[in-house]
Specification:
240 residues; alpha/beta; 9 strands; 41% helix
């Protein structure tokens, strides 16, 4: 997994951060990690700084002034990564909802199978979600169906946050024009990739809800996804 960086945004992930970093590094000696921390009050960033002594030249940290949304954290990470020489740029959560063992499958989808974007999909082979209450499973599943219908994307898990981009995809997207910051950020990035006709492959994964720390999901994030998708699709039609 050469030329690979895994971007992990954090806010109050002190309970998970050391374990997730070590789990990712155990997958390959070539992987690098970038932590983008939103000045966590629980001192997540301080723990990362301590771990940098154990993983010199592989573990990197960017600290932002305040909690500014998942999307802007990833945009920050994308720009940082593009300033380097990475060819494969991952998004991954810190809470183990994304299994580090699946990193190699997402990498191979791009490196071997020729995908420009590989998606760790919860819904490509049914509903592969563990420890979520039924109402949240239904909300997520129906949201992906809704987005698929509105946008026309042939993607089963449109809100997935476990993905691998090839460098040229992020270079082709105007990152400064990305509008959304929550759930809809994941949809918008996939839609931009889809509109540019890049090859997208979904890789089946099992999503396991966090056991430590608190979820960052809110009603505002959900509303952004529901109403933002229609706006996003309409704008793409007017541009055509």
């Amino acid at each position: 997994m050469k030329d690979t960086v895994v971007i992990i945004p954090t806010y109050n992930e002190i309970e998970n951060i050391e374990a997730i970093i070590k789990a990712v590094f155990s997958q390959s000696d070539s992987i690098h990690i970038l932590i983008v921390d939103d000045n966590s009050p629980d001192l997540t960033a301080l723990k990362v700084k301590e771990l940098q002594a154990d993983f010199p030249d592989r573990l990197f940290l960017e600290i932002r002034k305040e909690k500014s949304g998942l999307g802007t954290a990833y945009i920050h990470g994308f720009k940082w990564s593009l300033d380097k020489t990475y060819k494969y740029i991952f998004e991954m959560d810190a809470d183990f909802s994304h299994d580090p063992n699946d990193l190699i499958n997402l990498y191979n989808a791009c490196h071997i199978e020729g995908a420009d974007l590989s998606i760790g999909s919860r819904y490509i082979t049914g509903v592969n979600v563990v420890n979520w209450p039924m109402n949240r499973v239904l909300m997520s599943y129906c949201a992906s169906k809704y987005v698929r219908i509105i946008t026309g994307m042939k993607i089963h898990d449109t809100t997935a946050g476990y993905v691998c981009y090839k460098r040229h995809v992020l270079e082709a997207i105007n990152l400064d024009a990305i509008k959304f910051i929550g759930y809809a950020f994941q949809i918008e990035m996939k839609f931009k990739t889809y509109l540019k006709k890049f090859k997208i492959i979904e890789v089946p994964v099992i999503f396991t809800d966090r056991t430590k720390g608190e979820s960052k999901l809110s009603s505002g994030i959900i509303s952004e996804a529901i109403f933002g998708v229609i706006s996003m699709k309409l704008k793409s039609l007017f541009k055509k």
